[in-house]
Design goal:
The protein is an alpha/beta fold. Helix content is about 40%, strand content about 15%. The strands form four sheets. Strands 6-5-4-7-10-15-16 form a seven-stranded mixed beta sheet. Strands 11-8-9-14 form a four-stranded mixed beta sheet, covered by helices on one side. Strands 1-2-3 form a three-stranded antiparallel beta sheet. α2 runs parallel beside α4 and α2 runs antiparallel to α5.
Length: about 350
């Protein structure tokens, strides 16, 4: 399988997702600032993936400062943490990874600057490696929910491109295929960045999994005709009550799935759960440049005089979620209890 993100010891290497599917190009980031700009500019995207990128970016930004006094190194750690925290506000995995790196630094700084820098590098690589294994466990836990013959509807991209590898929603699909199940996928195109048609379709095609691209507005048509057996999406943040922030357009898919009696599953790592927020109305929603809505690629598709809005995410109320698929098991309603139980290690 292709690598979404890699660490050379001197640089962070990122598969440029803005160039897919036409070009498979890897961007080599040699500074923390370049990694941060890659996150901000959607070169790498997906909640788990940007968490991994932030961890590696911090390690990279600290690596050339192993000779600095600890007070200066501590100030640099704070600056780097703030830099990555400013890149994208909605995905909680980003902040989870930053906090984990900050804890690693705090636990190792008494051993000296070089030891602290080495500990940060080791922790960042560990976060990346753990993410791949977590995704595989999500896949194994979710596979039994997929019928022997199934058409799965998905929105945006929650695959290997959105993680360090294997994927969350697409990880469940991959695990089902590896079990010998006959699975085909309907992929919403996911305007305006077309993560479904450009990225999900590319990933699944690489694996030989049948995929059909549909427009975002066509999902209800196929659900109503009985052509969809289940819907699976990823998540950028899950509130304590089970409300879910995910790519804009997820909410109508969930509502239409419920209306047509189709299970709607959310596949995500435990790091996506934010118990500090009681409900989804507290989740910060990123608003991106409206010009991204008025263009397709580099082509203008709207008049200059027209205004546009570009919320990058929406919030799906917990009542529309059939179950959450995590590396620790399946959470079902009531989510206030089941999500906390998974985090406490009591599935």
């Amino acid at each position: 399988m292709f690598k979404t993100i890699d660490w050379t010891g001197e640089a962070v290497v990122i598969l440029d997702q803005t160039r897919l599917p036409a070009d498979v190009i890897y961007r080599t980031c040699r500074s923390a600032e370049e990694v941060a700009e890659a996150i901000r500019g959607m070169v790498i995207r997906g909640a788990p993936a940007i968490g991994v990128a932030a961890a590696l970016g911090i390690a990279l930004g600290m690596k050339d400062h192993a000779g600095d006094p600890i007070p200066e190194l501590r100030r640099r750690m704070e600056r780097l943490s703030a830099l990555f925290a400013s890149t994208r506000p909605t995905a909680v995995n980003l902040f989870w990874a930053i906090e984990r790196m900050k804890r690693t630094f705090a636990a190792s700084e008494d051993e000296g600057a070089r030891a602290a820098v080495e500990a940060l590098e080791a922790e960042a690589v560990k976060i990346r490696d753990e993410d791949i294994e977590i995704n595989r466990r999500i896949g194994r836990n979710g596979e039994p929910l997929v019928p022997e013959k199934a058409c799965v509807l998905t929105h945006c991209n929650a695959g290997a491109l959105a993680t360090a590898g294997y994927g969350t929603a697409l990880g469940v699909i991959r695990a089902a295929v590896e079990k010998g199940k006959r699975v085909q996928v309907l992929a919403d195109e996911t305007r305006p960045f077309l993560q479904g048609s450009r990225l999900t379709a590319w990933e699944l095609s690489q694996d030989g999994i049948p995929v059909t691209i549909i427009t975002d507005s066509a999902a209800g048509h196929f659900l109503a005709r009985g052509e969809v057996d289940l819907a699976i999406v990823g998540a950028d943040r899950i509130a304590a009550n089970g409300d879910v922030a995910n790519k804009i357009g997820t909410y109508p898919v969930a509502v239409l799935s419920r209306e047509n009696g189709v299970p709607f599953y959310v596949a995500a790592p435990l790091s996506t759960i934010d118990l500090s927020l009681p409900s989804g109305d507290r989740i910060p929603i990123e608003e991106r440049d409206p010009e991204e809505v008025k263009t397709s690629g580099n082509v203008k598709v709207a008049p200059e005089a027209a205004m546009a809005r570009h919320p990058a995410f929406d919030v799906t109320p917990a009542r529309y979620v059939t179950a959450f698929i995590t590396e620790a098991g399946i959470a079902r309603p009531p989510y206030e209890k089941s999500l906390r139980a998974l985090l406490d290690g009591k599935p």
